[in-house]
Amino acid sequence: MNNEDRQSLLRRRVLQGAGLMVFPLLLLVLRLWQVQVRQGPEHLRQTQRQCVRPIWDNPVRGRIFAADGKVLTDNTSHYDVVFHLAEMRQPGRSRRTKAHVLATAMRLAALMECENPLTADMLAQHVRMTPALPLRVFTDLNALERARLAELMPLISGVELVPRIERSYPFPAVASQILGVAVWEKPRTIDLNDMYSRSYAKDELRGLSGLEAAYDQALAGKPGMRLVRVDTMGYIHDDIGEAQPALNGHDLHLSIDSRAQRVADRALRGYSGALVVVDIHTGGVLAMASAPTYDLSVTDRNHYALLSVDEENLPLLNRAVNGLYTPGSIVKPLVALAALAKGAITPDEIYDCTGRYMVGDHPIRCARRYGHGPLDLLEAITVSCNPYFIHAGVETGIDVLNPMYAAAGVGEKSGFDLAERYAGIIPSRDMALRHWRRPWVVIDTAFVSIGQGGIEITPLQAAMFTAALANGGKLLRPYLVQNVVSADGKVVNNTPVVIRHRLPASPEHLRLVQQGMENAVAADYGSAKELRDAGIPLAGKTGTAEVGPKANRHHNTWIICYGPLPEPRYALACLIEKGDSGGRTAAPIAARFFREWLSAGEDLD
């Protein structure tokens, strides 16, 4: 091999060696480019997931006010002691820090002369799950305990006295089913697990029933958030950027009159039933009581669970909204309007009540055993004569009665603030086929003409059609929340007056029915004469519905009324389960309500 060949071979080997050296360097450069440039954002995100944590701060929940400005649901500060573990860390192994934390808890318990609630297991779980959050050790400190703590707290790093907001109720057994319960739950904040490996949030109040549930989003507000950098143990190292402050919840201002509500709740003590009072011109609910009820101030989740299984008293059931009842004679004014509209009866037509009405071979008896004798429409409303209204209803027919009941809101949810489970049952030919599996027959019309058989309503529905009878035929949408107000005092939402339907009746016919209801109170023989004790002039109609099987039959008793006459402002419906009669049971309760509500200056406590 000559020199040229050797040099050529050497050059090839040098080039090969250089190639072998350069190629890995090129691969390394390519990999570095891929990691640093192309995959840089992803690695940054992964790093952020590992060392950055969002910490959520709860807003203050909105309050609930009555129309007269009294607070019905408030927020009260309770004071707790928390440990900031990052500030209590000791040099060396983590067990030294844990021992220091446990010893500090023992020391504080001895100082405040109370039990030490902190255990090693509780501490270990907190360190494992939420080390960046304060560890809540002592709760609900009284004034003496806070004073004792103040002596020692400045000498111990990481110990802080912090307020905790809880719901409170100035009138704890008033409007319980309306206001409802808010309980502490695991947070339902925005899930940031795609951005961070873990986020820390405290338990938050969530509405479980009543307005607390229906307006939970408005009351709750929006949580604030701050980003913190944590070390390998999960303890906070420092804050990142500017914190987002929490937005406190909106306040609810109700149509409820606090005095009316307290009187209504008190009037139902010892009964099972409901009482609803509405403004006949707006549909705003002034009072809504349901009994039996419960005390909001002692209701936590466990106690609430016990109430929910009380099937005998059903204290959680808002009977005013979700109790379905056979109405009895309170629907007779609607039957009269339908019969007058069709021309099935005239105001002066005389009907001879003999004490019963025969439908084929089936007698339907009058409440007065031997009958009322000859009477016209006004007298029939005054004394609530069953045979008269059966005659009127049968002559009118279900195909005319049904639209009148529908216009009165029977069989239709009202659009109320609180959840309505049932629309009620409206009598119709279709209902008979669907529920009874048979055609509608005349005796069905006879029974629904006196509020029995295939018709069921809620006390709220009764109050609203009573308001329609009083205001000229306008069936309004009921509401509880007059307006929603933000934490800075701005009105976020205002509830308008909404006319849902109009009763298909002329002003002349409405005035006839109103006159009959006025006579039912004013006349000595009127079925609602007990309302004369109300202290204001009222028009009313009683109802007594037979319910249950023959062996266990009982009466659900009603009164509907409006006043004060001659320019009414309020309509009331009261239902008492297992009463005697509408006149003897429900009417005195309604009279007592108006008398006590409108007695200025009387102490209700």
Question: Can you tell me about this structure?
Answer:
By secondary structure, this protein is α+β, with helices and mostly antiparallel strands. The protein has two domains: 53-115 and 129-254, Penicillin-binding protein 2a (Domain 2); 258-304 and 321-597, DD-peptidase/beta-lactamase superfamily (Beta-lactamase, 3-Layer(aba) Sandwich). The protein is 37% helix and 22% strand. It has 20 helices and 23 strands. Strands 2, 3, 4, 5, 10, 18 and 19 form a seven-stranded mixed β-sheet that branches. Helix 12 packs across helix 14 (386-396), helix 12 runs antiparallel to helix 19 (507-522) and helix 14 (386-396) packs across helix 17 (442-448). The protein is elongated, with a radius of gyration of 36 Å. It starts with a helix and ends in an 8-residue tail after the last helix. 44% of the residues are buried.
Topology (elements, then pairings):
Elements: H1 3-38, H2 40-51, E1 52-57, E2 64-65, E3 71-83, H3 94-112, H4 120-129, E4 135-138, H5 143-152, E5 159-168, H6 176-179, E6 182-185, E7 204-207, H7 210-214, H8 216-220, E8 224-230, E9 236-244, E10 251-254, H9 258-267, E11 273-279, E12 285-291, H10 301-308, H11 319-322, H12 332-342, E13 351-353, E14 356-359, E15 362-365, E16 373-375, H13 377-383, H14 386-396, H15 398-407, H16 429-436, H17 442-448, H18 459-471, E17 474-476, E18 481-485, E19 491-494, E20 499-502, H19 507-522, E21 539-547, E22 554-563, E23 570-579, H20 582-597
Parallel strand pairs: 2-10
Antiparallel strand pairs: 1-8, 2-3, 3-4, 3-5, 6-7, 8-9, 10-18, 11-12, 11-23, 13-16, 14-15, 17-20, 18-19, 21-22, 22-23
